[in-house]
Amino acid sequence: MNTRAGKREQTRHNILEAARKCFNAQGYDGASTREIAKTAGVAEGTVFSHFETKEDLLISSVGEHLADAIKKGLHTMDPEWCFVDKMMHIASFRFAQIALQPGLWRVILQQLVFTPRKGAVKELMRNSGLIEAMTRLIEDAQLDGELNPEIDPAAIHKTTMALFLFTIHEHVGTENYDCEDMCATLRELLEIQMKGIWLRQPELVG
């Protein structure tokens, strides 16, 4: 990477870090692009040279955060672990991020999850690598006989995301952002789902 490209990439990184910090502290409406630029040490126009809108900035800041959690989870995962343990390992990195910046997650819920721009959530998950990573883990578990191969991997993926969002919503409501508590909530839900629906079903005996 040449010096000019490297400088631009560092500026982009600084803007994203500043955006996460401001969104976390002030919420979406309270965090102006002027304040984000000031925190990043750049002119406001520089922010818009990297991101077309404030919403694009939010999506990118969250997406890169999520991508980092997925990357760390995948690179430190034991391939011999069961499906639930693998999913929980990745989730633990994301929960740790949420615990450090709970205000940022409230912004995500308000701006992207419950009042989403068309396709924003799917775009975020796809660009972060989440959909690809989860689909691969699900398909591997189906090949290993751990999950019912007759269930569409997309259905398992959607259900897992629903349980993850439920976990966050429940903890946001009680303002309990303890990483271990969030992991315990999600693990219980995933294990119930595994036993009740996702396991390979034995053939019915007449």
What does this structure look like?
There is one protein chain. The chain is built from 10 helices and no strands. The chain has 206 residues and is mainly alpha-helical. The protein has 2 domains: 1-51, Homeodomain-like (Arc Repressor Mutant, subunit A); 53-198, Tetracycline Repressor, domain 2. It is globular and about 55 Å long. The mean pLDDT is 88.
The helix tally amounts to: 10
Instruction: Kindly report the oligomeric state of this protein.
Output: single chain
Look at the structure and give the CATH class of the largest domain. Mainly Alpha
Number of domains: 2
At the fold tier of CATH, the topology name of the largest domain is Tetracycline Repressor, domain 2
Average pLDDT: 88
Q: What kind of sheet is the major sheet?
A: none
Shape summary: globular
| Cα-to-Cα separation, first versus last residue | 66 Å
Overall SS class: mainly alpha
How would you spell out the order of helices and strands?
HHHHHHHHHH
- If classified by CATH, what would the architecture of the largest domain be? Orthogonal Bundle
Q: Helix fraction? A: over 70%
Question: Quick one: how many beta strands?
Answer: 0
Low-confidence stretches: none
Q: Which range does the strand content fall in?
A: under 5%
Gyration radius from CA atoms, angstroms: 19 Å
DNA-binding region: 32-51
Protein name: Transcriptional regulator
Keywords: DNA-binding
GO molecular function, one term: DNA-binding transcription factor activity
